[in-house]
Amino acid sequence: MADLYLKALESERKSLWAACRLKGLAKGTPERLRIEELDKLLAEHKAKKAG
Q: pTM surpassing 0.85?
Protein backbone atom coordinates (compact mmCIF):
# COMPACT_ATOMS: atom_id res chain seq x y z
CA MET A 1 0.00 0.00 0.00
CA ALA A 2 1.25 3.47 -0.83
CA ASP A 3 2.34 5.62 2.07
CA LEU A 4 0.62 8.87 1.16
CA TYR A 5 2.00 10.78 4.15
CA LEU A 6 5.55 9.90 3.13
CA LYS A 7 4.88 10.84 -0.49
CA ALA A 8 3.39 14.20 0.57
CA LEU A 9 6.40 15.03 2.74
CA GLU A 10 8.86 14.07 0.02
CA SER A 11 6.94 16.04 -2.59
CA GLU A 12 6.84 19.18 -0.44
CA ARG A 13 10.55 18.86 0.32
CA LYS A 14 11.45 18.40 -3.35
CA SER A 15 9.35 21.41 -4.34
CA LEU A 16 10.87 23.64 -1.64
CA TRP A 17 14.40 22.52 -2.49
CA ALA A 18 13.87 23.35 -6.17
CA ALA A 19 12.58 26.82 -5.25
CA CYS A 20 15.54 27.42 -2.94
CA ARG A 21 18.00 26.39 -5.62
CA LEU A 22 16.30 28.53 -8.25
CA LYS A 23 16.21 31.62 -6.02
CA GLY A 24 19.59 30.98 -4.40
CA LEU A 25 18.17 31.19 -0.90
CA ALA A 26 20.62 31.08 1.99
CA LYS A 27 20.40 29.00 5.14
CA GLY A 28 18.10 30.45 7.77
CA THR A 29 15.35 31.49 5.37
CA PRO A 30 11.84 30.17 6.14
CA GLU A 31 11.96 27.81 3.17
CA ARG A 32 15.28 26.29 4.23
CA LEU A 33 14.02 25.94 7.82
CA ARG A 34 10.94 24.11 6.54
CA ILE A 35 13.19 21.73 4.59
CA GLU A 36 15.09 20.94 7.80
CA GLU A 37 11.77 20.32 9.58
CA LEU A 38 10.63 18.04 6.75
CA ASP A 39 13.91 16.09 6.96
CA LYS A 40 13.24 15.51 10.65
CA LEU A 41 9.65 14.42 10.01
CA LEU A 42 10.76 12.07 7.23
CA ALA A 43 13.40 10.47 9.45
CA GLU A 44 10.91 10.00 12.30
CA HIS A 45 8.31 8.51 9.97
CA LYS A 46 10.77 6.10 8.37
CA ALA A 47 12.08 5.03 11.78
CA LYS A 48 8.58 4.42 13.05
CA LYS A 49 7.71 2.47 9.91
CA ALA A 50 10.87 0.34 10.16
CA GLY A 51 9.99 -0.72 13.64
A: yes
